Amino acid sequence: MSSKSHDTASILMEALPYIQKYSGKTIVVKYGGNAMTDPALQQSFARDIVLLKQVGINPVVIHGGGPQIGNLLKQIGKESHFVDGMRVTDAETMDVVQMVLGGLVNKQIVNMINQAGGRAIGLTGKDGNMIIARKLVLERKAAENQPSEIIDLGHVGEVTEIDASVVRMLEEDRFIPVIAPIGVGRDGTSYNINADIVAGKMAEVLNAERLLLLTNTPGVLDKQGVLIETLSQADIQNLIADGTIQGGMLPKLACATDAISAGAKSASIIDGRVPHALLLELLTDQGVGTMVTP
Ligand SMILES: Nc1ncnc2c1ncn2[C@@H]1O[C@H](COP(=O)(O)OP(=O)(O)O)[C@@H](O)[C@H]1O
Ligand SMILES: CC(=O)N[C@@H](CCC(=O)OP(=O)(O)O)C(=O)O
Asked: For binding substrate, which residues are annotated in this chain's numbering (predicted)?
């Protein structure tokens, strides 16, 4: 055997214990809007998802689309405002969120996976009353000795309940669920929910083996910009308190912490700009980001 074919065979063999470990299990993958900007990377993501399904693993994709929502808002002359990584969502912005997440982005991902040979089904949290939400009430203190004030984020929601029966039904078959983070209130109100939060709750409800959040950084970085490979829940509190973790990274770590408190073994924030990041993280000895552990 040539050394090249020996190398190829050993790479394939490296995947075997991981395929055995994850076969029949659910892996929740959050595909961030910032990780989905490059067409070649989108294709490598879609092929990874199809490969996982093909070897008996059940990927469930929750997608974001923050930059894509921001672009359409800009085209209609609206500025985006964020508080703690969450978009302030008035009624008009909520319509744009539904158009972009439920329409454009969701169907783009479905199409990419199907082009790669998979069978993806796109849903929002409204389908089958899957994601029930209520208005998020955000309380904040300007300073330690000040009374807290309530910040109105409009249609931003928090998840109160997930009925994952439709996801179960799809994953038991050949289908790959692709879910947009839009929730519905008991009274029919639409809610915009941060996709990281939805991914964390979905991982809890599905009792997922892994929760992977794909984004546009190498993982969680320290003050010097160096990758932190593993983080405990106590480390996270310290890094938030000293301002190292901010903005879009806050909901990711909140959801990782919640998922772990609810029994998940780990949650990983990985670099979606690395081609085949999912395969590298799941099926090889090589990690590609930050793993949050209990
Ligand atoms: N300590 C940190 N390490 C890495 N990224 C951080 C950190 N603190 C804040 N961030 C920001 O979080 C962003 C990722 O969140 P976000 O923009 O919401 O991505 P996504 O669209 O993938 O959800 C990074 O691009 C970075 O600007
Ligand atoms: C409440 C809130 O902020 N919702 C997000 C939903 C999309 C999202 O989470 O997209 P990324 O994962 O690409 O950031 C938003 O409106 O941008």
From this structure: 65-66, 87, 192
Could you tell me the distance, in angstroms and rounded to a whole number, from the CA of residue 145 to the centre of ligand 1? 30
- DSSP line for 191-209: EE--HHHHHHHHHHHHT-S
State both tokens at 173: 């078959």
**Helix/strand/coil percent split, the chain, to 5:** 45, 25, 30
CB of 165 within 8 A of CB of 222? no
Instruction: Spell 89-107 as b/e; 16+ CB within 10 A means b.
Output: beeebbebbbebbbeebbe
> How large is the ipTM?
0.95
Which one has a higher pLDDT value, 158 or 262?
A: 158
The pLDDT tens digits of the residues spanning 157-201 come to: 999 999 999 999 999 889 999 999 999 999 999 999 999 999 999
Say which ligand is closest to the CA of 62. 2
Secondary-structure class of domain 25-293 per CATH: alpha beta
Beta strands (DSSP E) in 98-202 are 120-124, 131-135, 138-140, 149-151, 157-162, 176-180, 182-184, 190-192
| The two structure tokens encoding residue 226 | 């160096």
Provide the token pair at 282: 């799941």
Q: Where are the domains of the chain?
A: 25-293
